[in-house]
Amino acid sequence: MRRTALSACPLHCYDLCAFCVQLEGDQIVDITGNAEHPVTKGFVCSRAQGLIERHNSPDRILSPMAREGSQWRRITWEAALDQIARRLVDALEGGGPAAIMHIDGAGSTGALKGLGHRFFNALGGVTRMEGLAVRDRGRAAMRADFGEAASPAWSDLTRSRTIFLWGRNPAATNLHLIPYLQEAREKGATVVTINPVRLAVEGLADEQIAIRPGADVLLALSMAHVILEERRWRGDFVSAHVSGFASYAEAVSHFSPEQTAEEVGLDAETIRRLARLYAKERPASIVLGAGVLRYREGYLAVRAIDALAAITGQLGIAGGGIHLASDRHEIGRSVAGDDDAHRVASPCAQGATRIPARNLAEEVLRRKRAGSPAEPPIEVAVIHSANPVSQMPNMQRAIEAFHAIPFKVAIDFTLTDTSRHADILLPAATSFEESDLFVSAYNDYIHYQPALVPPRGQVWPEHRIWGELSRRMCALQTAQGTGQSPAQQGEGAPGWRSLLCADEAFWASTPDAWLEGILQPFGVSLADWTGGGPRPNPGLQVVPFREGSFSTASGKAELAGEVEFKPLLDRRKVVPVHHGQDRRGEEDFRLIFVHRPGRHNSQLWELDNGDDGADLALHTEDLRELNLRPGDDVVAETERGSMVLSVRADDGVPRRCAVLSSGKPLHDGGGVNLLTDASENSTFHDMNDPGFAVNDTFCQLRKIALAERIR
Ligand SMILES: Nc1nc2c(c(=O)[nH]1)N[C@H]1C(S)=C(S)[C@@H](COP(=O)(O)OP(=O)(O)OC[C@H]3O[C@@H](n4cnc5c(=O)[nH]c(N)nc54)[C@H](O)[C@@H]3O)O[C@H]1N2
Ligand SMILES: Nc1nc2c(c(=O)[nH]1)N[C@H]1C(S)=C(S)[C@@H](COP(=O)(O)OP(=O)(O)OC[C@H]3O[C@@H](n4cnc5c(=O)[nH]c(N)nc54)[C@H](O)[C@@H]3O)O[C@H]1N2
Ligand code: SF4
Ligand SMILES: [Mo]
Fold first, then answer.
1. By alpha-carbon position, which residue is closest to atom 10 of ligand 1?
2. What is the pTM of this model?
3. Domains located in the chain, CATH noted
4. Which long-range contacts (CB under 8 A, 24 or more apart) does 256-262 make?
């Protein structure tokens, strides 16, 4: 008999759609949208069907596997976990916790996926990768300015008179934002896109501003220049709620539109007009996207954009603000052991060494060559909800780095570009097989879903893996017994054993109990969540920063100023045009990465939806110059590597740029990060900036000669 269960999308999409999952026995037969959701209403995208296909896929890994050379062998959970526990303990007692690398990514929105952090926090200061998700960089910038990343409710957009869609393409990545933009426009708002690529947004935007790739920081600074020059800033707000204004104003005075116009790719009058629109036609809001963040100056671009909102007093007011992410939405942090309260209880969580994804490969290789007690070589890596080999820049180097790690464990559904390099592969449970709470920093609603179907094969929910590892490691008799690494001995450090074993009762608990624990501080209980369905995120602030209340040390918005922005001045002529030293000849094309409808980062590429994703979009004039026709194959070549892609014409793409998407598996002709290198990420090196600059990749394009084809 058919039944319907309420659920939500586990993908890290802005939208976090509410699902009605149709079940027959233990089979998932369909997913439709839950009409009760105030935002996503009844509509879901094609990726929802993809989730069913993935769940049922014959390619799914259904039991633990061990790699033997190029072969995989099924092993029992007992054998797999014994081996992993042993290797983790050896690493702890050898190099210490820093010899263990924990990698998780943007694979899932499930709050209990954060339990991996709980487990590794208890080991005391492991090495951790961060910043694989490009949007983390925008959040880091917001934290520097406001003390936290905080965005208004999506619905607040309908109170804006001006909306800048700045580096986001809702038609591809954020479908459910569109009705709000439409409603705002119906009420008279002006919607402007700021994007080097002209988007197919018929009826969605009043104007498209095509800036040069990577020029966002200069545009924002020049808009500020106009706002200050024309005295359109809000002195009352600034004196009460902004710190660092003098230094900021001094920096901005050097970025007049006339000085930056060429690099920004707009005429000075257009920049002036945008500044007036933003400051005058208020309230104005800015919807930020990942497009701004994939450049050397992506972090500073967000800080410069934040400053626009601060100097015009458009924070803490209805219809204002900056839309990106909200830290307070991440209500699972307590159970993950990442919140402040847990850090106090478990001091070693603080000791984790964080390595930005852009440096990960170099760092692993450097430590391998020249490890020290403080930075030991990585002995064990555990990867879940992430596909870093595919998704981090410089793939070839990433593969080398993974080979340099003696023991790697991956938890995933299938063999991916990353998991195929693992020594032990553990099967991941799909969202339908586990109870969880779907939560995202980018979305205003949360969803509870109990496990809907029994796990396929030998699949376990992820928390059981952490719990079992924890139990085994506590029970292991070790030579040193104390659970202290050599580096810790004699320092009075508690050692991993006491921390890990103190969590034994925690791991004996159940998903529902953990979820109750997450919700309880907000006065919400699963028991009164009758019938599931969406609820507003308890951390939601419809309008954040009310009364100018910022959670920075000073209580004010802390603007970046001369130290941060002035270095851009020296390089102004070069920053957006060609970043840094890399060669850029006449024949070079800049790669612009975008996310693709129907795919999700490195996920769901196995679906046959008529879009094989291997194409490079170019302007017709560039096609002509290269003597190419749509459908032709080209070799795209950089200093890092090369790959073959078929070309497509799109006159929305700026000249000398090529638009493509990342994620498609290497064995299937994907692997675009073979081309990228983003180890240098900014002019002003801010340790808080975890981002990377894949869009600063320049490639050469060459038509594949007939002779090469025949060969
Ligand atoms: N369908 C689909 N949806 C997704 C995802 C997916 O893979 N597929 N992934 C999810 C994830 S993890 C993320 S991070 C988001 C990303 O989604 P978005 O925030 O929309 O980001 P992108 O698609 O990466 O790029 C958005 C736009 O930035 C523009 N852009 C490129 N360079 C510049 C520039 O220099 N300045 C400006 N102003 N704009 C520029 C691009 O032309 C593009 O139109 O999407 C989420 N949603
Ligand atoms: N060149 C280039 N590189 C990029 C980008 C770009 O635009 N260009 N975009 C960047 C961005 S914005 C992002 S967010 C990252 C995304 O990169 P990642 O963080 O790696 O995220 P995904 O590719 O979505 O998924 C990673 C893996 O998680 C697995 N997974 C999904 N759900 C679960 C689960 O419940 N449990 C477990 N154990 N595994 C699960 C999936 O099968 C997949 O293999 O890539 C970044 N890399
Ligand atoms: S991928 Fe995004 S739009 Fe598609 S169903 Fe999931 S949340 Fe909705
Ligand atoms: Mo992302």
1. 13
2. 0.95
3. 2-56 (2.20.25.90), 65-131+337-509 (3.40.50.740), 150-324+558-567 (3.40.228.10), 581-710 (2.40.40.20)
4. 256/222, 256/225, 256/229, 257/222, 257/225, 257/226, 259/222, 259/572, 260/215, 260/218, 260/219, 260/221, 260/222, 260/572, 261/222
